[in-house]
C-alpha cells in the first residue's frame, strides 16, 4: 500500500471514532456489485437509469445505490437503496467489509475521504461521473489541511461536465490519463416504440398539417390547453392538437371535456380517424405516445400547469426531436428542465395565453427545428457519458486493460 499524502493522513486521523451507523441488515448479493452514490435527487434518478441499462445487458450484476442525506429516501427499482453513513474510519471499514463493491460510481462536489480511501485500499475501482466547476467540499474541521486533491487522486477515472471543470482538475495536478470530458450526467431514456406502418399511415392522413402534442396531460389542465389551442388556430387554421393523458382516469375526463368544447374532436380509442376538419385528437392512454411524438414537432409536457404533479421527464421527450413547452410546476425534474432551457431547447409558459403564443410562434418549422436540435444535443451528451461509463465498467469487470485510445481528449490541453 503506497504512503498517503499528509493532508489525507491528517484527515483520516481526525475521522477516528465510533461508527455512526448500524451494520447493514441487507445481505450482499452474490456476484459482481457496483456501488453508486447520488449527491442529488436528479443524480439518483440518473444513476438508477444507468443501473437499469447495466443490468439489462448483464443481469448477474447487482447495484447498491446510496444517497446524500439531502436526498429524500425512495425506492429505485433494480437497486439496493441506502443512505450513506457519515465519513468515519469505523463506518468506512464496515461499509467496505460488508459490501465489497467491485466498482464505485460517485457524483457531486462533496467527497468522503475516509470511505473513498478505504475502498481504494481494498481494490474497488472508483469513478467520479460529474465533476463540475463548483468548489469541492470535504467534511472535517476547518483547521485540517485541504485534502481535496489527495481524495480526487483516489479515483481511477474522473469525468468532467465541461472544459472549465476539466481545466480545473488539471490545475490540481491530477494525471491526464485519469481525466475524461463527457458532459453532465443525466437521466436518459431511449425513444418510445412506434409502428412504422402506423406512422406512415398517419403522416399521409395529416397531409403535412401543422400539429402539436400535449403529452401526459392531467384532467385539471385540459380546459386551459384546449383554450390555448382555440386561440392558436386563429393564426394557423389547419393546426391539429394531439392530447395524450397521464392515466386512463385522466383520459376519460379529458375526452369528456374535449367533447363538450366547441372544437371538432375525434377519439382515437373509439376508432375515429382525423380528417381535414378535425381540430383535436384525444386518446384515453399513452400507449401510442411514441407515435404522437413523431408526428408533432412541438410538445407541451403535462403535469406542469397546475401545482401538485411535479411535471414530466423532459429528456425523454427531447429524445424524440420535439421543441418543448412546459408549465411552472416541474419540481421533480427541475435540473433537467434548466439544462434544456439553457440550451435553448425548452420554453416555459405560465397559462393558456402564453401557451397559445408559444405554439403560434413555433408552428414556423425553422423555429421548432432549432429547439429540437438543441434538445437532441443535450440528450446526446448524457447518452455519451452513459455509454462511456458502461463500456468502462464492463472492461474492468472482465479484467480487460483499457485501450490506449479510450478517450482522445484525455490529455489535451484545455
UniProtKB/TrEMBL annotation:
<dbReference type="GO" id="GO:0009244">
    <property type="term" value="P:lipopolysaccharide core region biosynthetic process"/>
</dbReference>
<keyword id="KW-1003">Cell membrane</keyword>
<protein>
    <recommendedName>
        <fullName>3-deoxy-D-manno-octulosonic acid transferase</fullName>
        <ecNumber>2.4.99.12</ecNumber>
    </recommendedName>
</protein>
<comment type="function">
    <text>Involved in lipopolysaccharide (LPS) biosynthesis. Catalyzes the transfer of 3-deoxy-D-manno-octulosonate (Kdo) residue(s) from CMP-Kdo to lipid IV(A), the tetraacyldisaccharide-1,4'-bisphosphate precursor of lipid A.</text>
</comment>
<dbReference type="GO" id="GO:0005886">
    <property type="term" value="C:plasma membrane"/>
</dbReference>
<comment type="pathway">
    <text>Bacterial outer membrane biogenesis; LPS core biosynthesis.</text>
</comment>
<feature type="domain" description="3-deoxy-D-manno-octulosonic-acid transferase N-terminal">
    <location>
        <begin position="28"/>
        <end position="183"/>
    </location>
</feature>
<keyword id="KW-0808">Transferase</keyword>
<dbReference type="InterPro" id="IPR039901">
    <property type="entry name" value="Kdotransferase"/>
</dbReference>
<dbReference type="Pfam" id="PF04413">
    <property type="entry name" value="Glycos_transf_N"/>
</dbReference>
<keyword id="KW-0472">Membrane</keyword>
<comment type="similarity">
    <text>Belongs to the glycosyltransferase group 1 family.</text>
</comment>
<dbReference type="InterPro" id="IPR038107">
    <property type="entry name" value="Glycos_transf_N_sf"/>
</dbReference>
<dbReference type="GO" id="GO:0043842">
    <property type="term" value="F:Kdo transferase activity"/>
</dbReference>
<dbReference type="GO" id="GO:0009245">
    <property type="term" value="P:lipid A biosynthetic process"/>
</dbReference>
<dbReference type="InterPro" id="IPR007507">
    <property type="entry name" value="Glycos_transf_N"/>
</dbReference>
<keyword id="KW-0448">Lipopolysaccharide biosynthesis</keyword>
